[in-house]
Write a structure and sequence with these properties.
about 140 residues, mainly alpha
Amino acid sequence: MAYDVAPASNPKMADSQIPMILASVWLLVSIVVGLLLMTGGPNKSGDVRATLPSLSSSASRSAYGGDAYTGIQNAAADTENAVIASANSLAQLELTLAQATSRSAAASGKNTQFGLGFLIIAIAVGIFVLTLRRPTS
C-alpha cells in the first residue's frame, strides 16, 4: 500500500519567521506594559490624613497679692502655655511637611513611571525594527 504524503512545509521558512513572531509578541506586550506604566500606577493624591493633637493648658494666671509664690505660679502657668503652644505649632508644621513630602514623592513617582513606560516601548520598537531589517536567507 502506498500512501500519499503531503509535502512538508519549508522548515527554513518556518525558522525564519520565528524571530519576527517573537519580536511582534514582544512589541505588543511592551506596548501594553508601557502604557499601563505611563497612564496607570498608584494613584497617590499626596494627601496625608492625620489628626493633630490639640493640647490645652489647665494652668491660669492669678493675682493673689505680691508674694513670690504667686509670681512662681504665674511663671509656671506662662511656661506651660508657651510649651503647649509650641507643641501644637510643631505638630502643625510636621503635618504640613509630611503633606508636602507626600505630594513631591507622588509627582516624582509618576514621572519615573512615565519615563520607564516610554523606555520599555522604545526598546521594543527598536527590537522590532531590527528584526524587520534582519536579512532572511
